[in-house]
């Protein structure tokens, strides 16, 4: 049944060696010195945390401008970019929004969210609007666990049963300091039992 041969393992220092990761654009908003600001932060450390209620987690360093906006507003949006958006994603992960408008810088468009006050990135085919339910201070990063309170998806990435078509979504992946796109289909859930 084994499909890969075993090899001699090299023991490496403990590290977050988990690949691939999604590269997402998280949008957030809030008041800073009496002025309403919104912002984008590129994150790769994100994942699903729970099904009922639907929850996702994001790991954000407290030094990020976005951290304060998310902590104070209790809201964020996980915008899932397609693979063609890697340049904008890289830009939003290498410039701080403290003094810059990253929407303008990256040529991205604000669109209204359905439930939260942070904007959605119109160019991203999928957006998960979240309300922070838990904050876990893990060490270098804080883990914000957000309940997904609304989902917006481009019509062309949704199948007739309202499921996300991952091939059409063509999500941007990240690993080893490199941006990637998904490869070929290998099988569907449960295919091994057939
Ligand atoms: C591909 C990529 C992945 C990143 N992942 C994370 C992450 O998971 N957590 C984090 O705190 N910063 C991450 N960063 C760094 C932030 O995106 C970066 O520091 C950004 O400029 C912070 O913006 P802000 O100060 O406007 O919030 C990542 C950057 C890149 C390019």
Question: Describe it for me?
Answer:
With 194 residues, this protein is mainly β. The protein has a single domain, classed as Pnp Oxidase, Chain A (Roll), CATH 2.30.110. The chain is 13% helix and 38% strand. The chain is built from four helices and twelve strands. Strands 3-2-6-9-10-5-4 form a seven-stranded antiparallel beta sheet. It has a three-stranded antiparallel beta sheet with strand order 1-11-12, with no helix packed on it. A hairpin with an 8-residue loop joins strand 7 and strand 8. The protein is globular. The two termini are 14 Å apart. The model has no long low-confidence stretch (mean pLDDT 97). The structure holds flavin mononucleotide. The site of flavin mononucleotide has 22 residues, from strand 3, strand 5 and helix 1.
Q: What's the number of domains?
A: 1
Quaternary state, please? single chain
Helix share, percent: 10-25%
User: Radius of gyration, rounded?
Assistant: 18 Å
**CATH architecture, please?**
Roll
**Separation, N- and C-terminal Cα atoms:** 14 Å
Largest sheet: 7 strands, antiparallel
Question: Quick one: how many beta strands?
Answer: 12
- The number of helical elements comes to 4
Strand-residue proportion: 35-45%
